[in-house]
Amino acid sequence: MGLGRLRDVEKKDNILAIFIVIVVIIVLPSTILINYLGPFNKNFYYDPNYSDSLGQSLHSASNIPIGVAYSAFHSKYNQKFRNIVAYHFNSLTPENAMKMSFLWPGKDVYSWSEADLIVDFAERINATIHGHTLVWHSQVPQWVYSYSGTTEDWKNLLKTYVQTVVRHYKGRVQSWDVVNEAFEEDGFRDTIWYEKIGPTYIADAFRWVREVDPDAKLYYNDYGLCDDLIKLDYVLDFINSSILDGVPIDGIGFQAHIKYNDPDNATLINAINRVKALDIDLRISELDVRMNDDGNYDTFTYELSQLQKDYIEDFINIVLNYSKTTGITLWGVSDAESWHRMGGNLDWPLLFDESYKPKPAAFGFLNALKNN
Ligand code: XIL
Fold it and tell me: Active-site residue numbers?
C-alpha cells in the first residue's frame, strides 16, 4: 500500500473516532436527558407553570388529600391530562393498573411496569398512592378461572398474590382498597373468592396485608354506600364485628358513583352519621356525578352545569363535616375519558370538560374545600 493511501485510511479512522466520541459523550446522554425530563417524555412531562381559571390548585385548598384516578393509558401522549393531575391533585389511585388482571397475567408472572410508572409519577409530583384493589370479583385474570385446587390451595393462591403485591409497593403505597364490592345489598356477593374460599376471605385479606405492611391504611371499598342505607348498615355491621374480632380494617371507601339528585343531602348526612358512629376513617374513593343517566340530554346545558355545581358543593361540604374523612378522589380528570363514556354513552360526570377546562362543578368543589 502506498503512503498516500495509508494516510487516507488513518484519516478515515480519525473521523470515525471523533464521530463515535461525539455520539457517546454528547448526543446519547442529551437525547436520554431530553426524553426523560423534557416535553418528549410521554409518561412524565407536565408543564410546571400550568394554572387555570380556578386560580388555585384544588389540593392547596384542602387539609386532606384530593385525589384522582390515574390511567396510564389516558396520560400517555396527553400532556393536558398530566398538567391537571400534577397541579390539582396530591393523591393518585391507579384506575386499572393495580387490578389483578393487569398485575398477574400468569400464576408465576407479575407485570409491574404500568403500575410502577404511576407510582413513579406520583412521587415526582409529591402525591400519595391509594392502591386499588387487591381483592375483587371483577378484572380477575382468565387463568384464575381455570385454576383448580382445594379450599386451602385457593386461600394460598390469593394470599400469595396479595402479599406479593403489597410487598412490591411497601413504603410507596400509603393505603389500599383491600377488598372491593364484597356485598350485595344485604348479603355476601357470590364471587369467585366467596365460592372457593368462603366468607372468611375478607378478614383474611386484611390480615395478610397488615402482616406485610403494618403502616398502610386499609379500606373496605364499595358502591351504593351513600345512597342505599340498607346496604350501608349491612356493610358497617360486618366491619364493626370484624374490628371487634381484631381484623385490621381502618376505614370504609364510598365509591360515590352518584347522580346529581341521588343521594339527596338528608340521605348523605344519614350515611355519614352512621360511619361517624363507628369512628372509622372514610374515603370518598371514586367520585363522579352523572347528569344524563336516562340519556335525556345530548348537550351539557348551562342549567345542568349549575345543578352539578350546587350538588357537588353540598356533597363535599357534608363529607368534610366528618373529622375522619381522610381523602376525596375523583374517578377521572375530564368528561372525555370518564368510564361512564364507555360504550358510547354520553355524560358529563367530572370536574373538567372535554377540552380540559374547569367546569362549574370544579368551582363548587373548590368552594366547599375553602369553606372547611
Ligand atoms: C373501572 C374503570 O374506570 C374502567 O376503566 C374499567 O374498564 C372498569 O373499571 N368500581 C371500581 C373501579 O371499583 O375499579 C371501576 O373502574 C369502576 C367501578
Answer: 181, 286
Nearest CA to ligand 1 atom 4: 339
Q: How far is the CA of 339 from the centre of ligand 1 (A)?
A: 7
- What's the CA gap between 57 and 258, in Å, rounded? 24
Task: State the residue for C-alpha cell 448526543.
Answer: 27
Alpha-carbon gap, residue 350 to 289, rounded angstroms? 7
| Whole-number Cα distances in Å, 232 to 187, 227, 319 | 11, 8, 15
Distance from the alpha carbon of residue 185 to the mean position of ligand 1, in angstroms: 19
| Whole-structure pTM value | 0.91
Find the 34 Cα to ligand 1 centroid distance in Å. Answer: 34
A 10 A CB-CB count for 304 gives: 18
Ligand 1 atom, smallest distance to 99 CA: 14
Ligand 1 near 220 CB (within 6 A): no
- Say yes or no: CB of residue 255 within 6 Å of ligand 1: yes
Show pLDDT as tens, one digit a residue, over the chain (372 residues): 565 666 676 777 788 878 787 777 877 776 666 555 666 787 889 999 999 999 999 999 999 999 999 998 888 889 999 999 999 999 999 999 999 999 999 999 999 999 999 999 999 999 999 999 999 999 999 999 999 999 999 999 999 999 999 999 999 999 999 999 999 998 999 999 999 999 999 999 999 999 999 999 999 999 999 999 999 999 999 999 999 999 999 999 999 999 999 999 999 999 999 999 999 999 999 999 999 999 999 999 999 999 999 999 999 999 999 999 999 999 999 999 999 999 999 999 999 999 999 999 999 999 999 999
